[in-house]
Design goal:
By secondary structure, the protein is an alpha/beta fold. The protein contains eleven helices and twelve strands. The chain has helices at 20-23, 39-43, 58-61, 82-87, 100-116, 118-126, 158-169, 194-200, 220-225, 243-252, 291-309, and strands spanning 3-6, 27-30, 48-51, 69-72, 91-93, 150-154, 173-177, 189-191, 203-206, 230-234, 255-260, 280-282. It has a seven-stranded parallel sheet, sandwiched between helices. A five-stranded parallel sheet has the order 2-1-3-4-5.
């Protein structure tokens, strides 16, 4: 039987899902976590390896002569040197589109938390604030309706398109920076330039891949071009933004809020400036982690390995 090793299985399956489908395909070993200096030893005899965040550099791949397949347990596959893998005849696959609905859902959970401050009022009322109030109602923050506001989206892949569709249902005007032609966009989505998007967006949501061109796409210069009091949302990749510049913009009142599920370093350093900003709303990279999305991830991961073993690999990225 083929030896299959999962290097960091805990994030995808902390125990509420089953590895039975993968077990049927080979001799399976699942590690919850793997440190960099453990990777080679744990993979040295494996033909098939599954990884989420464990890195496979060219140097690492050169020390794994039996390795024939790397399955990335995520959509992004930058943890693998795909060119080096291709040179060594190693197939690399990813898990596309499994978390589209979940990520779009969290995107709007963040937006609605900022516009309606649900967490703020729930925390106050656990401490008795409403019970002490002389009137039936109170609010001590601005409350904002989304209808008529402008949603700007950077990147119209599966998730960006889903976010655009939800925004339209809220009655928002949707503009996007995208490589797609204007004629190919659904009704209700207008294409514009990056600078145009910065100038008009009440909410700007990032859904583009991380590349050398998009690294720190939102920097100090871009933030100065944004609409005063805009909401910036990042459920894409942490390094799409310059975190210090975003923290400065929050402190200076240029941004109303920064809502993010991703950070440049994960977990973040305790001294990350965003952790001290009252208008930074940060969740710990959970947009993809709904039970339903992880079920899909596990199924697709198993199907990917099965297809590879059958000599007909799918979702190949190299």
């Amino acid at each position: 039987m083929k030896k299959i090793v999962v290097l960091d299985g805990y994030a995808s399956n902390p125990g509420d899902l089953s590895w039975e489908g993968m077990q049927a395909l080979g001799e399976l070993t699942v590690y919850d976590r793997t440190a960099p200096d453990e990777t080679i030893d744990r993979c040295k005899d494996a033909e098939i390896v599954l990884t989420n965040k464990v890195v496979f550099s060219a140097a690492t791949l050169s020390q794994l002569p039996y390795l024939k397949y790397i399955g990335v347990l995520a959509t992004g596959f930058n943890v693998v040197d795909t060119a080096a893998a291709r040179e060594r005849g190693i197939t690399v696959t990813n898990i596309p589109a499994y978390s589209t609905d979940s990520v779009a859902q969290l995107t709007f959970a963040h937006i609605l938390n900022v516009t309606n401050r649900v967490d703020h009022y729930a925390r106050q009322n656990r401490e008795g604030r409403w019970s002490r109030n002389p009137d039936f109602v109170y609010w001590d923050t601005p409350l904002t309706e989304l209808r008529g506001k402008t949603m700007g989206i950077v990147g119209l892949g599966n998730i960006g398109m889903k976010v655009a569709a939800i925004a339209r249902l809220f009655g928002m005007d949707v503009f996007a920076m995208t490589s797609k032609n204007s004629s190919d966009l659904p009704a209700g989505i207008q294409k514009t330039t990056f600078d145009g998007l910065l100038a008009i967006s009440d909410v700007l949501s990032l859904h583009c891949p991380l590349t050398p061109q998009t690294h720190h796409l939102i920097d100090a210069e871009a933030l100065k071009k944004m609409k005063q009091g805009a909401i910036l949302v990042n459920t894409g990749r942490g390094p799409l933004v310059d975190e210090q510049a975003v923290a400065d913009a929050l402190q200076e009142g240029l941004l109303q809020a920064y809502a993010a599920d991703v950070m440049t370093q994960e977990p973040p350093q305790a001294d990350n400036p965003l952790l001290r900003c009252p208008n930074a709303y940060l969740t710990p990279h959970i947009a993809w982690a709904t039970f339903e999305a992880r079920q899909r991830l596990m199924k697709i991961a198993t199907d990917n390995v099965r297809a590879f073993l059958a000599g007909k690999p799918v979702n190949v990225v190299n």
